[in-house]
Each structure stands twice: as structure tokens, then as C-alpha cells.
Amino acid sequence: MFADxxxxxIKSGKGGDGHVSFRREKYVPDGGPDGGDGGHGGSIIxxxxxxxxxxTDYRHKRKYVAESGAEGGKKNCHGKNxxxxxxxxxxxxxxxxxxxxxxxxxxxxxxxxxVLLRGGRGGKGNQHYATPxxxxxxxxxPGQPALELEVKLELKVIADVGLVGFPNVGKSTFLSRVTNAxxxxxxxxxxxxxxxxxxxxxPEAKGFVIADIPGLIEGAxxxxxxxxEFLRHIERTKVMIxxxxxxxxxxxxxxxxxxxIRKELEAYDPEILNKPQVIAANxxxxxxxxxxxxxxxxxxxxxxxxxxxxxxxxxxxxxxxELLFHVSGLLETLPREVVVFEPEYDVDEELMDTDTEPFTVxxxxxxxxYVVEGPRIERMLGYTNIDSEKGFLFFQNFLKDQGIxxxxxxxxxxxxxxxxxxxxxxxxYK
Length: 430
What we know:
Strand order of the largest sheet: 10-11-9-12-13-14
Low-confidence stretches: 183-193
Structural class: alpha/beta
Number of helices: 10
Number of strands: 18
Order of helices and strands: EEHEEEEEEEHEEHEHEHEHHEEHHHEE
Strand content: 15-25%
Shape: elongated
Helix content: 10-25%
């Protein structure tokens, strides 16, 4: 099956920890700190590869982790940076947050490359913490943690024109006649599973990209059959060609077919019906003359809506040239830019910026402890070496600046009481 959707787990590399070490050289008995910085973690990068047209690779492997940065070393040696992990995707791939279904990035138009998850910064070695009063710091900064996210990849075909219609009305035959595409063609009573793309070259007019979009059935807008897969691709196209069986060879009612498809399009997104539409009444080689009752009915039903009807034969080529010139003319009146979906989810803001997130300060009567929790507090604990006097003082000042000590006092904390922060317990002293 055509792989136009995939769900994968991605994780950037953790930053390497800063190193704690001191110079140990002959004739230098009390060498200063020389711990090097940790390396930066690798980032997760998405990049468009024009040679790709499916997401099939991401169906076989679902977890992608960039390399972490190495720890800093002695003698001011900087840890090795982690390698970035570049994930190649076809143009038109929309990346969404799997939990919220919000768009993170649309790899279309000028969006060829995006750093989605940045690697963690490397921690600073102890050489950075030497001061006149603290000449031998025994702590270093831990590396910044990795970022991780589950994302959905959705490929939405980028084509100027989309062929829509029920199965076995001749879409594949039409595409093979007017483009260089070579779709499989047979008398199947089920839908093409993959969108076949081809380029229409016209010597007297501008060419365009045309796609045989997977067919649909009634109820598609509710997810029945291939519904959402079909409708997902239609969002990108600028003009729609309704292919119907103008000779009713299969016993289908072309008018009812078009109304059914328009109903599904409207249920999915009413804006889609505002796109220019054309009707190609196919299989006219099976009809005597250039018209019949079906053609006249189609014109009466739809031409007053601005939808022109063209009797054609994808087999003989009858009427095809006129149809293509009309479609080319419609495209000339429309903007040439690719439809790009705007981002709705900011990874940096959602995963990294915890400064403005709330914290809680409560008294746990059962444990007789005061409990402090919050995203930024947890992050600061990860960055700070509270085993050292200076590091503990730094963290205490942080709690004061955030107003946490003030809230503890409002709850009635007294000297000697216990404060718990994410598994760590401290005795409170003013």
C-alpha cells in the first residue's frame, strides 16, 4: 500500500557533562581546575529529498535518536559534539505532533530543511567556576537533557490538478494518455491505492502537474474506506477534474457520482468546493456521436455552477486537448505558489520554555513534609550540583527569586522542617 502516513518517535542527543579535574603536573603541586566542557548533542533535522515520493521507509523503522555529546575531559579538552540525525522526506510532507495533531512544519515550497529538535548544550567544565574565593571548584555543569517527541508524518500530494471520481471511470487511462505517468490499468472495481503523478506538457500553453488521487466512497469524510487519505491529497490541488463514465458502461449515474463526491468534499472542508472544477465525461468512444442524454443532463446540472462539461475519450483522445487547454487557462488565473500549511505547534516553546510554567508549594500532612514541584524547578535541579556549597547556595537563591521560600513561610514552615523537591529532601534553615 502507498505509505502516505507514518508515526515515529524522535529524540535529540543529550549534551555531554562538563568535567571536574585539576592540573597534575610535576613541580605544580596545586594546579588549578582544567575540566573541559561537554560536547553538544546532535539535533534531529528533517530535509526534503526530491527523489522520494513515499514515506515507506518510516513504516519499517519507527525510532530515531541523534547522538549525544561526549563528556568534557582533562586539560580543558572539549567533549566531541554528537552527530546530527538528518531524516529525508518527500516534498509535501506535513509533520504533526502525534498527541495534539497540530502542524509543526510543512515541508513544501521553500521549506526544504528544518531543525525540529535541537541537541542539548554541553555542560561547562569546572574551569569556568573558579573565583578568587573558590579556586578549586569541585563541580561542573551537567549537559542539557535531550528533547523527545512522537510525531506523525503525512504526505499530501503537491499537484496543480487532481483527478477525482469513483473507481473504474477511467482516471488511470486518462492520466497515462496526457502525461508521462505509467499507472497500472485494468478493469478493477476497487480504487487505485496510490496517487499517481504525471506532468502534462503542452507546446502551446504552460504545462502542469496532474495527479490521479485515490478514489473514495460515500462516507469518506467520516473516515470510511480510504476517505481521509483521499481528502488529504485534495487539499493541495488547485483545480479538480471530475472523471465520470459518460457512456454509463458500468451502469453508474454520473450526476449522482459527482453530487456524492461534492458532498464528501464539503463535509471534509467546505473551502475545497471553492476550487475551480471541470467535468470530463469519459468513454465517449462507446457512444455514437459527440453527445447523448447523459452529457446534456450533466451540462444542465452543473454548467450554471461554473463547472464546464467536456465529452472525452481517454482511449481515442477525443476532446482531451480541449479539456487540457481549458484547465491550463484556469491555472493561469490562479496563484502559482504551493499551498503551505502554517505551523500550529512550537517545539521550542512546548518542550523547552518552562520558565513561565506554574509551580506548587504544599504541606504533606501524612509525611510531615513541605513539597515543592514544577517543571523549571526540576530542570534547575538537573543543571545544578547541589552537593557543593556554591551550587547549593545558587539553588537556594533561585528558590528565593521565584518566591518559593516566601510561600513556604506563608504555609508556616519552621527551622528544621523538611522540604522535598523531586525525591530530594532538605532541612529548612533561614
